[in-house]
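Hi support team,

I've been running sequence recovery on a batch of backbones for a student project. Most finish fine, but this one hangs at about 90% for roughly twenty minutes before it completes. I'm not sure whether the input is malformed or the queue is just slow. I've pasted the structure tokens below so you can try to reproduce it. Let me know if you need the job ID as well.

Thanks,
M.K.
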């Protein structure tokens, strides 16, 4: 008897709160028409992608991790809990138990879904805690915003709570809620509501009209109360808790994807604010919203190839000829417009997207060299130390150059980083490996305070670029002139090119030519332009 027949037999033994599922050839088969009719699915045979699309966004990564863990451990029985969307747009929580087996050399699963929460209870109250949910909060905020009532809100979150709950059990979760409620009561007495956002994040809503203090003072009082309670608690410390305060009608609070918005504000406080404490205001809200929008859009922009490149010439001062072009990443966001690399590059590094972003720009740089047949010079590609030391970087760079039939000496690897690169053994090894493969090497932003003087003596650079802050201040101090004069002498001894960055006026160009600098780059020579 085959598995599909067994699934149909099992269907006849279950009630309306349970469904039988199985996987085969990338599809999910759902047996239990009454049960699965509740879900937002076109039919009872769907692709795995369609199934994942109805799972709550916060639960998708968790489920994928559980599946991969079961595969890695080759476990026969798998269990998980996650939320799925119903046809009404609400979410219900399912418990899934599956049996893994191999048939005709294909991994397959058969299992059972069981409803843990009903749509109505999930919509109004969280099952385990009894707190009102994000749906109730959204409705309440709609009324407050519409009626222009004076309310303040507090997002309280513990990044470690979910991990502690898994380790010590659900009691720790309830203890944290008691911890929050005791802290709030000491400031607001009984005039407040607490809402469940997710397993780590909660929201308190309080009418401000009853209190004479400003939002800042009330937020500070609550922060102090959290400190007092943490000193009495054996389970939580103030350091692990983030607190965000906001006046509901004082900022533009977007109610679409409200749970995601609140969690993002909490994470921003956790990652960027002193004591993980943030008071949102008209002054800082726009900048924080921009930061979060950029952060949330990065991965999709990389995967969707939304970044473009601009190039800026590096010109030989003696001949006036273009020596190379530096590649500069550009991003035009559909909502907030042009985003500076100074904004998105640090976030790319922080979120671990350095390699995927870096190879995208590397490929676009190679495409530029191939298409631009009007010159036969090189191109400078900025490479961070993180990217340089990523897996098989040198081998991949050589393969990509060969793929586009580009001589490696036409690709200048421009190293930029916030640590002295001569101190890192792996970095040194990669630099020498690049040199052996024929790539040219450039040291970027020399004199910025990050690069070591020993780098230009100890490593085989073909080019050193002087930081623009030095160049733009050479007329303000003789010390800068002396430093450049010193670098010119060293460049002759070490046979590397010296490039002055940030040349914004013709006066600087003349001074640098008189000093004997090899090449210049900046707006006085040419603004960055798109290859098209």
């Amino acid at each position: 008897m085959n598995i599909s027949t067994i699934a149909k037999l099992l269907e006849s033994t279950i009630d309306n709160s349970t469904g039988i599922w199985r996987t085969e050839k990338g599809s999910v088969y759902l047996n239990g028409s009454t049960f699965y009719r509740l879900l937002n699915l076109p039919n009872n045979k769907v692709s795995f992608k369609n199934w994942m699309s109805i799972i709550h966004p916060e639960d998708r990564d968790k489920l994928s991790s559980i599946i991969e863990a079961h595969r890695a451990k080759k476990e026969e029985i798998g269990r998980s809990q996650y939320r799925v969307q119903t046809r009404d747009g609400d979410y219900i929580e399912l418990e899934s138990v599956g049996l893994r087996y191999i048939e005709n050399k294909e991994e397959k699963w058969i299992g059972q879904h069981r409803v843990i929460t009903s749509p109505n209870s999930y919509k109004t109250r969280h099952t385990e805690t009894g707190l009102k949910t994000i749906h109730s909060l959204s409705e309440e905020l709609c009324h407050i915003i519409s009626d222009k009532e004076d309310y303040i809100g507090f997002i309280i979150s513990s990044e470690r709570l979910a991990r502690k709950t898994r380790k010590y059990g659900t009691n720790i979760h309830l203890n944290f809620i008691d911890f929050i409620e005791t802290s709030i009561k000491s400031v607001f007495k009984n005039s407040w509501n607490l809402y469940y956002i997710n397993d780590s994040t909660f929201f308190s809503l309080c009418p401000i009209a009853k209190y004479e203090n400003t939002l800042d003072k009330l937020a500070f009082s609550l922060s102090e109360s959290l400190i007092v309670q943490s000193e009495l608690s054996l389970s939580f410390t103030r350091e692990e808790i983030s607190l965000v305060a906001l006046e509901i009608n004082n900022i533009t609070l977007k109610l679409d994807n409200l749970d995601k918005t609140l969690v993002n504000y909490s994470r921003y406080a956790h990652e960027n604010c002193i004591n993980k404490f943030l008071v949102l205001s008209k002054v800082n809200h726009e900048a924080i919203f921009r930061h979060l929008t950029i952060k949330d859009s990065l991965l999709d922009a990389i995967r969707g190839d939304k970044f473009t490149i601009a190039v800026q010439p590096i010109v030989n001062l003696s001949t006036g000829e273009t020596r190379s072009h530096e590649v500069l990443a550009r991003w035009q966001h559909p909502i907030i417009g042009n985003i500076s690399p100074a904004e998105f590059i640090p976030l790319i590094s922080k979120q671990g997207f350095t390699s995927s972003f870096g190879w995208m720009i590397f490929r676009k740089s190679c495409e530029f060299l191939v298409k631009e047949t009007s010159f036969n010079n090189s191109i400078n590609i900025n490479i961070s130390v993180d990217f340089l030391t990523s897996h098989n970087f040198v081998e991949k760079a050589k393969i990509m150059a060969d793929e586009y039939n580009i001589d490696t000496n036409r690709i200048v690897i421009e190293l930029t980083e916030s640590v002295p690169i001569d101190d890192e053994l792996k970095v040194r090894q990669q630099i020498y490996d690049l040199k052996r493969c024929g790539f040219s090497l450039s040291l970027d932003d020399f004199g910025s305070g990050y690069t070591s003087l020993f780098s230009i003596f100890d490593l085989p650079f073909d080019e050193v670029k002087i930081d623009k802050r030095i160049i733009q201040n050479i007329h303000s101090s003789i010390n800068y002139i002396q430093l450049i004069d010193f670098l010119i002498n060293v460049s002759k001894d070490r046979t590397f090119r010296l490039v002055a960055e940030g040349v914004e006026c013709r006066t600087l160009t003349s001074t640098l030519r008189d000093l004997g600098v090899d090449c210049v780059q900046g707006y006085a020579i040419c603004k960055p332009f798109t290859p098209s």
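--
Follow-up from support: It reproduced on our side and the slowdown came from queue contention, not your input. DSSP finds 20 helices and 20 strands in the chain. No action needed from you.
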